[in-house]
Sequence to fold (107 residues):
Amino acid sequence: MFARVAAIVRGDATPEHGVAFFRDRVLPDLRQYEGFLDAMVLVPREGEEVLVISFWDTEESLLGAEATPAAHRASAARETLGPQATADARVYQVAFRAGARDQSAGG
Fold:
């Protein structure tokens, strides 16, 4: 599994605007790409940097999605988040993942 982590300085937008933009505009696009698994948006209690994390089944799927971004997304992001919003994205391989403890296992 691979993850794309984008650190976004949101400019003039509130965290609520950024989350709504991701939910309403970005997520529907991501769901159309083969290999997309999951996504989350992390907003800080303080500061302006928001983290957007998407999870992919393979690196090829992730890179394929990056190579064919939705045409309207960049302009919509500027409109929603402000012209001074910036993003820095990195790709990571998920080396370890753990879920909630299985309660049915008796322990």
Q: What stands out?
A: The radius of gyration is 15 Å. The CA atoms of residues 17 and 80 lie 7 Å apart. The first strand starts at residue 2 and ends at 9. Strands lie at 2-9, 36-42, 49-56, 86-93.
